Amino acid sequence: MSLAKRIIPCLDVDNGRVVKGVNFVDIRDAGDPVEVARRYDREGADEVTFLDITASSDNRETMVHVVEQVAEQVFIPLTVGGGIRSFADVRRMLNAGADKVGVNTAAISNPDLIKQATDLVGAQCIVVAIDAKQIPGSNPARWEVYTHGGRIATGIDAVEWALKMEAYGAGEILLTSMDRDGTKLGFDLNLTRTISEAVKLPVIASGGVGTLDHLVAGVVEGKADAVLAASIFHFAEYSIEEAKRHMQAAGVEVRL
Amino acid sequence: MKTIAVVDYGMGNLRSVAKAVERVVDKQMHVVLTDDVKVIAAADRVIVPGQGAARGCMHALREHNLIEALLKAATEKPFLGICMGLQVLMTHSEENKGTGCLDVFDGEVHFFGNHAELQSSQYKLPHMGWNRVKQQRRHPLWRGISDGARFYFVHSYYVKPQDADVIVGTTDYGIEFTCAIARGNVFAVQFHPEKSADEGLKLLNNFVHWNGQS
Question: What is this model's ipTM?
Fold first, then answer.
């Protein structure tokens, strides 16, 4: 197949500034989302995702301006997630220049939001973000969906939820393993493969990347269509280009 | 001052298209996002973007009274259709239980999901991401872009023109489908040049300097 597997760097943004270090020698202001996004674009990122972690809703307006500025200068797809609660929020981010909007907690509390949004703006704009955690002792493994940044258990089975969101018209699934997030132990490949094979939608694997082999495994064993990572790129351990060359050498189709 | 009209009928991320075009224009050109038929009639070139579903797009074009203006523009000045802006140029779409389109090009818009070749789990829908574009013939809008270059796609329907001569680009996704068509002053693509980094900006740059001859 000639469609490339995508590599997506993810940036946490708090009150309009990139947080969690971004160590690039050629960047003057590592907190500036525009500069960081441009840098990733130059390195060959296939998309960029911004996660708005601003706690106060007063500061959310800042994210709209961030999106506007980035969209003026970076001509690759741009996804924004975090704090999207209503269709008005979705519309605002799209109007600011986002190509896709990630919805997580709000999809659980109001699944019809996904239906409404995909009807009005198209499935391609709506990414359902699923934070999943393995149910201890489950064998075969089962996973439960969490909300509010992984703090609240919903009792919902992750596979059933993914199928429901597909039926509601979502365009893509961003799947994060809560067990692996921040561990650098690699993706939860069993979770990734289970969801990716259950739905026809593209699945972005997230949570746990520590090495370039983890990216390969996410695609080859996890059957993910795209891989998302934060820290390995932010701390300049690897460039996007190195990651892609590594994947290509392992037989993965990438855009170089 | 030359005007490039980006037709705004409320469907999709038009701002990105306008911003990407602004990046490639020179001082003698300006870009306007508009649904005003007079502005479109007076413009030197026209871009029709669009996302969403066929019926919604056709409905929005009618609501904004744009159909006549677009049909006219498609006969007389450099015209670029992007994504849904390509699909609505065909005769008819399978989407939304069948939708009549503008019929600038004879042909149908089909759903990928109906193909046996795409049932395998490796073919996700929508077809989303960076795929290769094979240039089926030379065209001024391909200038400087290598054959097989990757562009960003996101769609579940594809066009199938009656007249094979209009096909200028194809892409492989389980089946080989038409991703770019051209005839006279019209060029239309399934992928998103405004989201396709340098190759996409090259195509837009070629468009804003194109004399409308193929």
Answer: 0.94
